[in-house]
Amino acid sequence: MTASPLILHAPVDGVVVPLGEVPDPVFAAGVLGEGIALDPLAECLYAPCDGEVVQCARTRHAVTLKTEAGVELLLHLGLDSVELNGEGIELLVAVGDRVTTGDPLCRFDADRVARQASSLITPLVVTAANGWRVSAMGHAGGVRVARGEPLLQLTEEARDIAASADRDAAPSTATRRITLALRSGLHARPAARLRDIARRHAVSMTIAHGKATAETDSISALLNLGLSEGDELNLTASGERAEEALKAAVALLTIAEADDHAAPCQATAPSGPLGEGELAGLVASGGLAVGPLVTYRPPLPQVPRDGEGEAVEWPRLQQALSQAAEALEQAEAEAAQRGRHGEAEIFGTHRAWLEDPALGDAALTSVRAGRSAGQAWREALDAEAGRLAESGNPLLAGRIADLRDLQQRVMTLLAEPGACEDAAVPEGAIVVADELTPSQFVALAERRPAGLCLARSGTTAHVAILARARGIPCLVSMGAVERACSERAILDGERGRLEVSPSAARLVEVNAAIETRERQAQEERRAAHKPAFTLDGRRVEVCANVGSSAEAELAAQAGADGIGLLRSEFLYLERASAPGEDDQHREYQASIHALGGKPVIVRTLDIGADKQLPYLPLPDVANPALGVRGVRLWQCLPELMETQLRALLRVEPLESLRIMLPMVSEVAELVEVRRRLDSVARRLGLAERPQLGVMVEVPSAALCAASLAEEADFLSIGTNDLTQYTLAMDREDPDLAARADVLHPAVLRLIKATVEGSAGRCPVGVCGAAAGDPLASLVLVALGVDELSVEPARVPAVKAAIRRLDIGRLAAELPALLSLADAAAVRERLSAWLTTERDPTTTTIERLPS
Ligand code: PEP
Ligand code: MG
């Protein structure tokens, strides 16, 4: 038996506004639910049905009622009326009150609300239908209705349909409350990724923060939310794949991004007092440069101010936008092909921004006001840039250059012929500019500038990322640098200084340093494809840490002797579900192929603690860093692990593959995985088995290295976690970052114990960040490790450092180093030793206590 329909009555005399025409995208898109709106002609809102008051806004402009059948209704007085902060509104009910149809809910001063809010239009929305179908009762927009007239009808028949649909399919609207974990807040790159997630899943998605909301389709709207790390948000997705989309969005927003583009923190702040003729800046990209100072002022293309009407200008703008999008797509693909992933992502973000409906709407308004397509685009982006500048948020202000880039790009396509001349910049110049857009940077980089000084921009701006990626020294936030003028200046990216008029002696000194570095880097790159032997003849393999087959290719180009760590968990990130066997297989096979026969160590899925996958909820424990993670996942996710093993065992040639287990704390874990590996290989009919090794990341593994080495084909020390667990210092805690140092004697002693424990039974490598640390890597080699695995770009420099090392001489220093009190003391003594080694005339070492 179905219940009789539920009628919602007009809460006030007023003029009907269909919900889709409400001038607020959140209501209009039905994000909050279906309903109708009225433009009130009286000053009191009445209950549209019987129910209980379940929510009253603190600012008195919204009331939610719940009917006996569980339907929830929101009555929202005006739009943006939250700004009134309750002034001019009197609530006549409180949470918990029961009301009957026609009871007064709130009285308001219509003039005041109309003046101070963006509109008096009052939506009535079914925010939770609980299986009831909402239908209008035939009132067209613009029709006047009297208070109490039936407006909407809710019928129960949809309940059964909804219930059965529920059983068969995912709900069409889903919501999650999350805490934003992105360290730099919701900036342009994650905003573009969020938009992509919504598109891929064909859902409409909204973020709400406090009273503010934004559709993920609009990058500008997302940025204007000004979200910072730690902000609480509501994410809502509507569409058949809402649940899946939300999972992927939650993954993106709740896992602190590994900010591969982050500025190197020790190099950002200028140091020491300013010398004469020096200007200070923040170091966005380190290094030294000498050259003439050349000011670069990119002109905006000339476009006509007035247009030929909407019928001509709007299609003209659309065409320019799609041409610009195509060019960006091509630039993105080219950058990705060259391994410039940061650059590719920036172009992708720009493409997403180009399609932003908010920018399109603003331009359309200007076109309708008589502007040409180019001028309309210019005005729309000027307004948006103004909003970002006013936000007071440096990260958002840093995105202005991106907007200017889009402005320039599209205006160039609409410019009058001959109106876009580029400023002349000679090769080898230190370029001074107010600010550069990423495209201007890329164009400028083709002219091979020696360095870059920007009056504005920050170290996280896209230009800074690009400068780092290309190794162009760059200072930012320099203030009035554009007035500086010199035939020969020095950009010192170590000290954060522009030396405008250096002495001749200083120029000679810096030029010599640059030459030495360049020669050295070139030699290192040339020699990187040969094996590295220490001065006293020991071979040390230098492999690379990668997260994908694309990076494996970069590693091969850089001269890596193999892959020492393929972090397979990167394959599992930013997705709504785990990758299937075939997807994984393709990626592993591509990495093996890229290395052309050299060994590739793939680490099995390592999640838990700081690495989480939302679609694989792990037990909620008080201390996840000490909980089920790494190899312990075999206990709770055996199928997932076996899928990964099958994908791995299918690669060819199998002898290039090595499988490595993370977070092993006792040998039984290795024995168990070897048993499973055997059984999977047998089922696949394989005669061979790949090597199986373990990571030494916890003190127990280091101390029991002998028993591990009995069973393992190799050991690889994960110094990041080993340092964390030895010193009880969270590797994610910025306050402890300076002290969580691998050179702490306790960590070094555990590394020594690992090498000694293995006693030559199996090779020992290091794949934590210490392997690429200029000082720590030398100690590791002296302690006896056989292999170092580092970032691909570091391979040439690490090989070169090994070739300069006399292990015997450093090994003689080890007892003294290991007996020091802390990491700082070890670093100091080691630096002094190195200085003496490289220049025996210095006496520093004698001044140090032995
Ligand atoms: C380590 O812990 O040193 C390591 C290489 O693993 P990850 O950094 O991926 O935890
Ligand atoms: Mg680790």
Quick summary of this structure?
By secondary structure, the protein is an alpha/beta fold.
Explain this structure to me?
This protein has about 850 residues and is of the alpha/beta class. The protein has five domains: about 5-160, Glucose Permease (Domain IIA); about 170-255, Histidine-containing Protein, Chain: A; about 310-415, PtsI, HPr-binding domain (Enzyme I, Chain A, domain 2); about 430-500, Phosphohistidine domain (Glucose Oxidase, domain 1, 3-Layer(bba) Sandwich), CATH 3.50.30; about 525-810, TIM Barrel (Alpha-Beta Barrel). The protein is about 40% helix and about 20% strand. It is built from 29 helices and 36 strands. The strands form seven sheets. The chain has an eight-stranded antiparallel beta sheet, with no helix packed on it. Strands 29-30-31-32-33-34-35-36 form an eight-stranded parallel beta barrel, surrounded by six helices. A hairpin with a 5-residue loop joins strand 28 and strand 29 (about 540-545). Helix 16 packs parallel to helix 17 (about 580-595). The longest helix has 28 residues, at about 310-335. The model is unreliable at about 160-170, about 260-270 and about 840-850 (pLDDT under 50). It binds phosphoenolpyruvate and magnesium ion (MG). The site of phosphoenolpyruvate has 10 residues, from strand 30 and helix 23.
